[in-house]
Design brief:
- This protein has about 375 residues and is mainly beta.
- The chain has one domain: Porin (Beta Barrel), CATH 2.40.160.
- The chain is about 10% helix and about 55% strand.
- It has three helices and 18 strands.
- The protein has a 16-stranded antiparallel barrel with strand order 1-3-4-5-6-7-8-9-10-11-12-13-14-16-17-18.
- A hairpin with a 2-residue loop joins strand 14 and strand 15.
- It is globular.
- The termini are far apart.
């Protein structure tokens, strides 16, 4: 018996370090609140709603790693999105609709992952915008045309992220169409950022061919912000933090070529030109200034203004609406894991009329499209992280 006991103790001594090298973490958050929209349908009526996941999407996830030695790790993430009010799955009913990937991470060479992931606009550029950093859904650019609020994820994706070199980091994605037509609904993106002290500079580019035109490709039909022949987005941004204040500027340029099904948008449905014309392209140029001030370690206030110059090209004529969007946020942490926040968003559409739904104000996350060119949305919410 003594020999058996010694052998068992020796086995445990060898086994313990192996088990200690693997970790799995359960994490998540609930973001739930009350929304008011002053004008949310064709009759100009207000909407009062309980809504989930605005400053951040409600989620739970599993994140794990295994040390393979020599600075190399096997990693994975499975992240589920859900609606607190109904308990339904988010992201089109996907079990792990926010993220689902596996890969290898090296201290020296960077990280390569495979699966459903974020593109380079989200990974690098979005952090310089208010909506992609601290503001969330209500502060997104019109129709989230540049995906800085992460309206869509990319499926079938190979991603590379470099290590940081004296504050500089870069990366990219390639998403397969997973069909016999190699270019039908594929996506690729690249991005980079430089961080040094309080300074953050970032830039990114994304191109998707036939996004949303099938369910199995890079950007699925129920994910796409616009169904089109081609989507191109590029932009850059800068943030600077000094003391308790952060100020930022971001520019993005979105081109939607040959919008499909008369410009079907996930936000406003069909964008049908007048006089039976055919929609050939949409373009959005977004200019954002934002600021955040940490009044105390537990309380911050933030503000944002976005000017969006849009162009709609159609065989029956062109239009150039202009969007003025502003947002305010106040957030107070009552503990390390729980906070309450208040948001107010305003949008006004001006410029040339297009004769389409583009002339009507619509704040992403509002109760519906306004009956006119103005809209106000207010949200009071609680967020709990675990």
């Amino acid at each position: 018996m003594k020999k058996h006991g010694v052998a068992f103790a020796a086995l445990l001594a060898f086994a313990s370090p192996v088990f200690a090298q693997s970790t799995v973490t359960l994490y998540g958050l609930n973001d739930e609140g009350f929304n008011y929209t002053n004008n949310a349908n064709a009759q100009g009526k207000a909407a009062y709603q309980l809504e989930s996941g605005y400053a951040q999407g409600s989620r739970w996830g599993l994140r794990g790693s295994e040390d393979l030695g020599g600075g190399l790790k096997a990693i994975f993430t499975l992240e589920n999105g859900f609606d607190v009010n109904s308990g339904k799955l988010g992201q089109g009913g996907r079990m792990f609709g926010r993220q689902a990937y596996v890969g290898l991470a090296s201290d020296k060479f960077g990280t390569v992952t495979f699966g459903r992931q974020y593109d380079s606009l989200v990974d690098y550029l979005a952090q310089t915008t208010a909506n992609g950093n601290w503001g969330g859904y209500l502060l997104a650019h019109p129709y989230d045309n540049d995906n800085t609020d992460n309206s869509f994820r990319v499926n079938n994706t190979v991603k590379y992220a470099s290590p940081a070199f004296s504050g500089f980091q870069f990366g990219g994605t390639y998403s397969f169409s997973n069909g016999t037509n190699f270019a039908n609904n594929r996506q690729y993106s690249v991005g980079a950022q430089y961080a040094n002290g309080g300074l953050l500079i970032a830039a990114a580019y994304l191109q998707a061919n036939n996004p949303g035109l099938n369910a199995a490709g890079a950007i699925a039909t129920d994910d796409a912000n616009f169904l089109s022949q081609r989507l191109r987005v590029f932009g850059g941004g800068i943030n600077y933090t000094f003391g308790s204040a952060t100020v930022g500027f971001a520019y993005t340029n979105t081109v939607v070529d040959q919008p499909a099904a008369t410009g079907t948008s996930a936000y406003v449905g069909s964008i049908t030109p007048v006089n039976g014309g055919t929609l050939s392209s949409l373009r959005f140029r977004n200019y954002e200034v934002n600021g955040k001030y940490q009044l105390t370690p537990a309380f911050f206030v933030g503000a944002q203004y976005v000017y969006t110059a849009a162009t709609m090209d159609a065989t029956s004529g062109n239009g150039k609406p202009k969007y003025h969007t502003a947002g305010l946020m106040a957030d107070y942490n009552v503990s390390k894991r729980t906070d309450f926040y208040l948001q107010v968003a305003f949008q006004k559409v001006a410029g040339d009329k297009t004769g389409t739904v583009l002339d009507n104000a619509y704040i992403p996350g509002a109760g519906g499209v306004s009956s006119n060119s103005n809209q106000v949305a207010v949200r009071l919410a609680v967020r709990h992280k675990f």
